[in-house]
Write a structure and sequence with these properties.
The protein is mainly alpha-helical and 96 residues long. The chain has three helices and no strands.
């Protein structure tokens, strides 16, 4: 498993219900947005006069990286499945 922000790519499992915003899907979306914003920060930092846009982009990037860290700390496992969903079951895959 890759850590958010380490440059490793997360993957969307083929058997996941893509109508739901799962931790995995949220992680992939966050990773995509983080990389886009890192590119934007680099572009702005290289600009002659980035103005307030650079500060705004850096602040948003920090918030998204924090969100990715929080998302990574919430794995659904067989042990916590019932507490999370409210019924007995088994996680489709353990994410720890």
């Amino acid at each position: 498993m890759t850590e958010p922000g380490d440059g490793g790519l997360l993957e969307r499992p083929a058997d996941e219900d893509h109508d739901l915003l799962t931790y995995g899907e949220a992680g992939v979306r966050l990773q995509t947005e983080i990389q886009t914003l890192r590119d934007e920060v680099a572009r702005l930092a290289a600009a002659t006069d980035p103005g307030p846009a650079l500060g705004s982009a850096r602040a948003r990037l920090a918030l998204l990286e924090d969100a990715a860290q929080r998302n990574a700390r919430q794995p659904i496992t067989d042990d916590n499945f019932e507490a999370f969903f409210g019924y007995r079951g088994t996680a489709r895959r353990n994410t720890t």
